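Student: Send me a single protein entry containing the residue sequence and its fold in token form, directly below this note:

Tutor:
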Amino acid sequence: MEHETELERKFARIGDGLRLQDGAVIEGYASLFDAKDQGGDVVQQGAYQKSLRALSGAGRAVKMLWQHDPAQPIGIWDEVREDGLGLWVKGRLLQDVEKGREAAALIGAGAIDGLSIGYRTVRAKKDDKGQRLLQELELWEVSLVTFPMLPSARVSAKGDDPNADIWREMAAAFEGARQELGRG
């Protein structure tokens, strides 16, 4: 499973882990290591290191997007790094951008609490349980999203929708359909 070419996305519901400070600064985990997502994938520690070094060496940065839409950058990631838990990000929502202001309001109200990565798989393998172990990823962007997909990164809150998994699956299906329509 070397070097897949299609851009993929991986969601992480952050809950209390996504913090908004001073109305514009956000931080949290965009990906957690060794946590199986609903697609059966597991990101392994070290998966982002080579990509982060390459971006830094080229003077480029990981993009901050709204709902994975490349036409809607909403801020700047000032810090993106791996630690013992996963991929940690800290950045600023741009208050001069309408979507940046909207994102700040939605995060502050608790309506948005997820981050999602856009990446290309460089190296992966299947384990004996059929899980895809993501060993090396080329990280392109980290988005603020409505429907994250990594249940183990989720922090429960009062009023959690018992049908949240169904809504996430529907959102993933709609996103897949949108991508297929975009190719035609």
Observations:
- The chain has three helices and nine strands.
- Residues 164-183 form the longest helix (20 residues).
